[in-house]
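step=encode ok
step=design start
structure_in=
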């Protein structure tokens, strides 16, 4: 008796599991509420939902059997809601980036022109000096004596010439004696000039305005012509030297703007321009040496600092689409356009990508409508019903010369003139129907290139 009860229990359990499986897996069988199940609250499949499910399934099956031109994956006549924008034109961010080293516009190391013992150091390290200021003085007693001796000799020679000139009138002296006196006078002048030069060489003077570095010598040190005294830098502007690859040798030009960054001043961007270029490419490194100049009025930069230099070059124009419109699958990148009220897959090549836009190459023109979001996956030929993205208005392209049609709406409902992206890309805008934009009514696709929809970001289309 117990075995029969167990068999009955097992049978009831199996029947319950079977009914539950059919109830969950086959909703079409329960398109109408079952009295027994509805009495216990099991009404998971209302009639409306089941009818939609059956109708959708029938449409797909009909499409697979060839019931239309785009039956394969087209979803029958059912339209899919999607958001879209117009394709604009963007400009590539073409730039050259390199590491360079800065140096003062004028810089030199000071050395004495003669040997001797240091007698005076008028300035300290870090002092700003002007051109001609004496930085170092050597002992110059002998040179001063030589100058005084030369002055006396010149004075005696000049007086001798004056006496001979008086005697020449009485023909007391010959012409040869007069010429010798003149020659002695000229020689005395030369001796005085040489003595003055030797005395001046006992001084080390600043050749230009600048700031002195650390002194390598002290008063009393004996120095020679090879002894470095200190460095002198004119930091009113900084020269940054770096190299660019040879493929950019014909693109960089004098006057190009350069952005400079350095770890010595984090967060600061210094603006300069190219002021000099080497006249030949290095055959070993295949690079071209260039030089940029940046003003340094606040004296924040120093010689020897490393700079991250970036030279902006003239970019190329390409069609620009939002980043969320770009899809990937096994075939590569692609986008979905709206053409004739249907979704059209277009394979593209990515030229440049940023956070909010992608520059692409393919069978797409500025003014076409690209799908950015859709409620379902897309397939070629899927019917779409479009609505513009928030802040934008869709304009249908007309003919091959369709204008750029992306338009930004301000909070007052007026269209801004342009909408620029990070990559210097920009699209022209045309005014749109304000009432339609405010009400948020979907725009039905029409024309040669009109409606569009977008895949989900994590789905791929065939």
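sequence_out=
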């Amino acid at each position: 008796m117990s075995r029969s009860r167990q068999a009955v229990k097992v049978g009831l359990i199996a029947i319950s599991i079977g009914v539950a499986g059919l109830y969950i897996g086959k909703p079409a069988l329960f398109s109408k509420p079952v009295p027994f199940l509805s009495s216990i609250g099991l009404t998971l499949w209302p009639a409306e939902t089941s009818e939609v499910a059956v109708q959708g399934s029938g449409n797909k099956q009909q499409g697979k059997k060839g019931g239309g031109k785009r039956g394969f994956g087209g979803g029958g006549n059912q339209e899919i809601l999607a958001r879209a924008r117009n394709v604009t034109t963007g400009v590539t961010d073409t730039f050259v980036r390199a590491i360079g080293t800065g140096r003062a516009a004028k810089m030199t190391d000071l050395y004495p022109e003669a040997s001797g013992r240091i007698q005076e150091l008028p300035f300290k390290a870090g002092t700003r000096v002007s051109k001609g200021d004496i930085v170092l003085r050597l002992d110059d007693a002998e040179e001063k004596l030589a100058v005084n001796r030369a002055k006396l000799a010149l004075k005696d020679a000049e007086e001798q010439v004056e006496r001979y000139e008086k005697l020449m009138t009485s023909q007391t002296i010959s012409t040869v004696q007069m010429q010798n006196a003149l020659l002695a006078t000229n020689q005395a002048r030369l001796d005085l000039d040489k003595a003055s030069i030797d005395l001046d060489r006992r001084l080390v003077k600043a050749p230009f305005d600048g700031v002195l570095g650390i002194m390598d010598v002290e008063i009393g040190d004996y120095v020679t012509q090879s002894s470095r005294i200190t460095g002198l830098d004119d930091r009113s502007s900084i020269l940054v030297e770096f190299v660019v690859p040879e493929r950019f040798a014909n693109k960089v030009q004098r006057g190009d703007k350069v952005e400079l960054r350095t770890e010595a001043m984090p967060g600061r961007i210094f603006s300069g321009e190219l002021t000099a270029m080497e006249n030949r490419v290095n055959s070993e490194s295949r690079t071209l040496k260039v030089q940029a100049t940046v003003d340094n009025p606040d004296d924040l930069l120093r010689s020897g600092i490393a700079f991250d230099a970036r030279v902006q070059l003239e970019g190329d124009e390409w069609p620009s689409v939002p980043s969320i419109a770009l899809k990937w699958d096994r075939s590569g990148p692609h986008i979905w356009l709206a053409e004739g009220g249907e979704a059209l897959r277009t394979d593209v090549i990515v030229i440049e990508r940023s956070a909010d836009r992608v520059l692409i190459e393919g069978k797409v023109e500025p003014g076409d409508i690209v799908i950015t979001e859709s409620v379902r996956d897309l397939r070629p030929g899927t019917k779409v019903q479009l609505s513009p993205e928030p802040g934008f208005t869709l304009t249908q392209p007309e003919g091959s010369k369709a204008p750029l049609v992306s338009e930004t709406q301000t909070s007052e409902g007026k269209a801004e003139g342009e909408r620029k992206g990070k990559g210097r890309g920009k699209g022209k805008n045309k005014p749109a129907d304000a009432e339609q934009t405010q009400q948020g009514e979907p725009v039905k696709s029409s024309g040669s290139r009109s409606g569009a929809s977008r895949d989900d970001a994590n789905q791929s289309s065939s």
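step=design ok
step=annotate ok -> Residues 44-76, 400-462 have pLDDT under 50 and may be disordered.
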